[in-house]
Write a structure and sequence with these properties.
It is built from one helix and ten strands; from the N terminus they run αββββββββββ. It has 123 residues and is mainly β.
């Protein structure tokens, strides 16, 4: 879990909604060194949740790399089960500053969107 957050810090905050609604928590940052937008979403619920994350003031579209870490709260890696909790990679299309999809139960999901030229209206 620490690695998922530590390697996706970003350098400037981007306003996003929702930030905390019904067990879903989100944050967004720009990583100015890698020229990527990083969006993190946490679902603390025992149920999968549909979510639409809107980035306020950023109109970006493209394919986002997705890393999801999801498992039951009591799950842990061990010598007998070394891959009980491991991140899974995928991709998702982002349109007009919005990411829509389903967040797995008890999960942390990180979206990394490469930016060409960004005209962010960050206030």
């Amino acid at each position: 879990m620490q690695k998922v957050f530590a390697t996706n810090a970003g350098s400037r905050t981007v306003p996003s909604t929702p930030q905390a609604v019904d067990g879903i928590y989100t944050s967004a940052t720009l990583d100015e060194r890698s020229h990527e937008l990083i969006v993190k979403a946490v679902n603390v619920s025992a149920e999968a949740r549909a979510a639409e994350i809107k980035l306020n003031g950023v109109d970006v579209s493209g394919t986002a790399k997705v890393t999801t870490l999801a498992a039951e709260p009591q799950a842990e890696n061990s010598f007998d089960h070394p891959t009980a909790v491991v991140p899974a990679g995928s991709t998702v299309e982002m349109h007009a500053g919005k990411i829509a999809g389903e967040l797995r139960p008890y999960s942390v999901t990180v979206y990394r969107v490469p930016l060409q030229i960004v005209t962010a209206k960050v206030r």
